[in-house]
């Protein structure tokens, strides 16, 4: 199982996947917003989304787990 983590302190602007969705390596799964910039967060591994740990509007810090993929 792989986790997709935030690399910065930001707010979750948009969640692009749901549990059960299939993703390919490099697919954006969440878009963060920081200082009016949109930051796509990509998965490093292909697989199926097994959990989404955030919702739109959540504040996250560096290292916060956003999505699990297996």
Automatic annotation (TrEMBL):
PROSITE patterns: BIOTINYL_LIPOYL (PS50968)
UniProt-listed InterPro entries: Biotin_Carboxyl_Carrier/Decarb, Biotin_lipoyl, Single_hybrid_motif
Domain of life: Bacteria
Residue ranges occupied by any Lipoyl-binding domain in the UniProt entry: 1-70
Keyword terms, alphabetized: Biotin
Entry keyword 4Fe-4S: no
Provenance organism: Saccharopolyspora elongata
Name recorded for this polypeptide: Biotin/lipoyl-binding carrier protein
Cited CDD domains: biotinyl_domain
């Amino acid at each position: 199982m792989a986790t997709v983590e935030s690399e910065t302190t930001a707010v979750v602007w948009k969640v692009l996947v749901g549990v059960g969705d299939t993703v390919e390596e490099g697919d954006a799964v969440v878009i963060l917003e920081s200082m009016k910039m949109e930051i796509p967060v990509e998965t490093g591994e292909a697989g199926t989304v097994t959990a989404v740990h955030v919702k739109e509007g959540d504040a996250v810090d560096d290292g916060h787990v956003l999505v699990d993929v297996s």
